[in-house]
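Sorry to interrupt, but I need a hand with the structure work. I would like you to pick a protein and set down its sequence and fold. Please put the record directly below this note.
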Amino acid sequence: MEESLTNNSDAREQPLLSIVMPVFREGASLSAFVADVRSALKQSNRPYELVLVDDGSPDDTWKVITTEAKGCQALRGLRLSRNFGKEAALCAGLEYAQGDVVIVIDADGQHPPSLIPEMVRMWQASGADIVEAVKRRRGRESLSSKLGAKLFYFILNKLSGFHFKGASDFKLMNRKAVDAWLKMHERNVFFRGMTVWMGFTTVQSPFEVVPRWAGKSAWSVFKRLKLALTGITAFSSFPLHLVTFAGVIFLGLSVLLGIETLYLKLTGRAVSGFATVILLELIIGSLLMISLGIIGEYLARIYEEVKGRPRYIVTESIGPQC
């Protein structure tokens, strides 16, 4: 059984480094990726633990994690009862991680493990609470995905007042930052936004997004849209105020049209305005439906928070102290 870099006195004196890895349907490439992560960790020459969270994968991902744990005593595995989503799996990993420093990394290979030693070095040199890996380029994506991402971050930046351009979930956080993050108990989690909101000292490390090692991304258009709505509603109430502003504008227009209609009636110049009436009804009706939809999104968030259900359920675990 391979050692976890805890067998010498120099390593013991250094902070424990936890690697949190949400995993979903990555059985084909997980062993190779874990090997790369462990190779990068050896360059840091410090004690470490790997926390792999299987987010209800339908393939053999959990079997691969179990096999890897037999050859690495530093590996801890959690298996969620179903697919709760990446953000929930990430929450589970952070709550179970015991390290003084925690690095969150995706298991699909698009976050390069080779950047880990540099992130640790930057953390030590700068004394920052968070080292954030920032995307230079988004890698291979369809035009619609790139435009959608730009639109989302543009809206989120404007509404929230925080800067999210190039942000990713690939981060190093010290224990102070992790503990502060764990105090936020909302069910609708937007990890990268919540870390920015905390306001801790942050330094950035640029990286290139590389192609996935195997398989296809589990992020469908619907899941991306859901995450976008969660991010926007979690960090800004401006859409609700927008409904009020729109109502005031339409009230003003209604008053003007009412005055015009009354004037034409009194002067005997009133004409049939069927098309105008239909057009106004369509505009007002659309505005009402959109307004109800925006209000409904916020009510849904409140409803989910009030229920107080756990973010995830662990059905099986392996590794030390699991």
